[in-house]
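job 3f2a | input accepted
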Amino acid sequence: MPSGNRSFPHYFGNRERLPLNNEPPLIEHPLTPDKPYERDSNPGSARIITNWWDRSTPEVVYHDPLTPPLPGATYPPFKMANYRPASRDGVEGSEAAAPNDELGRTGLATLRRSTSL
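job 3f2a | predicted structure (117 res):
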């Protein structure tokens, strides 16, 4: 999936025209469930999208490896995901990942795809 050749956070243009609740300008941050993102490391497939000035409403998207890149793009397009923060007691949001779902890990966050594969 994407390599660490771009710096984060950076502008998110919503080329896929996802139904985001945040208004532009948008910014994307890597979402790495197991540890904080480190510059020049692989950012993985998941991103947190927020408004550039108001980051109080995070939305989660992911690169879908089963979908070919859009014309002129390097990576597969983004799709919407559901973000559910893990609880401090480890119960809420701690369901096991569905088979073949690399985004459904527990840790800092649990992602659940909004569509089934």
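job 3f2a | The radius of gyration is 14 Å.
job 3f2a | closed
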